[in-house]
Amino acid sequence: MNYKKITLRRGKEESLKRFHPWVFSGAIATADDSIEEGDLVSVFAADGRHIGNGHFQVGSIMVRILSWGDTAIDDDFYAERLAQAWRVRKALGLMRPDNNSFRLVHGEGDFLPGLVVDVYGNTAVIQAHSPGMHFARKSIAQALVNLPDGVIKNVYYKSETTLPYKAHLDPENQYLIGAFDSDVAIENGLRFHVDWLRGQKTGFFVDQRENRALLERYSAGRRVLNMFCYTGGFSFYAMRGGAQLVHSVDSSGKAVSLTERNVELNYPGDERHKAFAQDAFDYLDTMPAGAYNLIILDPPAFAKHKSALKNALIGYRRLNAKAFSKIESGGVLFTFSCSQAVNKEQFRLAVFSAAAQSRRKVRILHQLTQPADHPINIYHPEGEYLKGLVLYVE
């Protein structure tokens, strides 16, 4: 293999010996002069020992290791890794008549750093988070449609906002294979529109599937507030669970419109549901105390990087304090953080501080995380990004 060569400083291979897939810029002693964004590189220890191969990228994380040892990164490599990921999802029982939406590739968790693939019916949506995966997109797309069972017919590439802008790649969101078929997918028997053309991420947050199902069990007879509703996933689960009323709130008018479409798709004409385009903090400030006895707080990431951690924790504390102050006694609060920069302990402390500030009696009923189709590579604990608590508030 004639890959570009990178040699590490002495002792900097220790994390790689533990199979952590990132090589940071400070660990590199020498690199071939001709290396460019997205190139395939071979990484060597200071003593000349070959460690593995991966994608090069300018930045703090300069190499993402894809294979340990001499395994070539080619079409066969992507086909085998995707087939492995497919077998895992089949073992999880995610491919059923009542469920055809799931995450097929979760970056490092599926040993494909820099790549995310979500499946909605017969369409796969690819997001590249590294230049190397951007350059491999056509090979990946072909491997997707070649997967067993022939489920995937269309492959949409959606990476305009996920690739590093300094790489100057100018990616275009487009169908790599196939074309638009249907935007309706199924999750646990409920249908929803997925806007992978203009929506956030790949169009739907499949990482909350199991947490939505848990919420359904708590919804009977309750007055539900779904904050940061986006596409309304929690809302129509609450309705199926027998909620008395469900109010969905998001600052985005487009998100509220999509929520209304999804509710109508499952419960046409159901007057239990109303949606409001309003800032979350403003809504919580002005709503009457005791108006709701089941509240979901699922905000976007308050901290995408460690530099924003302090302000993010203040935001989580402030948001949860408002919910604690307004929820009816005997109410249940589902509260989440999807910020990778915020760990479980920090998030829990922020919620604890909010509870103490409200002087309410609070019990932890469940501690939640991401589902099994968002696996965490045991050698890469940074992959655990979704944290959640279910709280009983007296």
Q: What is the overall number of helices?
A: 10
Strand order of the largest sheet: 16-15-14-17-18-20-19
Shape: globular
List the uncertain runs.
none
**Mean pLDDT over the residues:** 94
- What is the top-level CATH class of the largest domain? Alpha Beta
Q: What fraction strand?
A: 25-35%
Distance between the termini: 64 Å
Query: What is the correct CATH architecture of the largest domain?
Result: 3-Layer(aba) Sandwich
Question: How many E-type strands?
Answer: 20
Main sheet?
A: 7 strands, mixed
Structural class: alpha/beta
CATH fold type of the largest domain: Rossmann fold
Number of domains: 3
**In the CATH hierarchy, what is the superfamily of the largest domain?**
Vaccinia Virus protein VP39
Range of helix content: 25-40%
Rg over alpha carbons: 22 Å
SSE string: EHEEEEEHEEEHHEEEEHEHEHEHEHEHEE
What can you tell me about this protein's structure?
The protein has helices at residues 14-17, 75-91, 131-135, 137-145, 209-218, 233-240, 253-266, 280-286, 309-326, 344-358, and strands at residues 4-8, 22-24, 28-31, 40-44, 50-56, 61-68, 101-106, 115-120, 123-128, 154-157, 174-177, 184-187, 190-193, 223-227, 245-250, 273-277, 294-297, 331-337, 362-368, 387-393. With 394 residues, it is of the alpha/beta class. The protein folds into three domains: 4-68, Archaeosine Trna-guanine Transglycosylase, Chain: A, domain 4 (Roll), CATH 2.30.130.10; 75-187, 2-Layer Sandwich (Transcription Regulator spoIIAA), CATH 3.30.750.80; 205-393, Vaccinia Virus protein VP39 (Rossmann fold). Strands 16-15-14-17-18-20-19 form a seven-stranded mixed sheet, sandwiched between helices. A six-stranded mixed sheet has the order 2-6-5-4-1-3. The protein has a five-stranded mixed sheet with strand order 7-8-9-10-11. A hairpin with a 2-residue loop joins strand 12 and strand 13 (190-193). It is globular, with a radius of gyration of 22 Å.
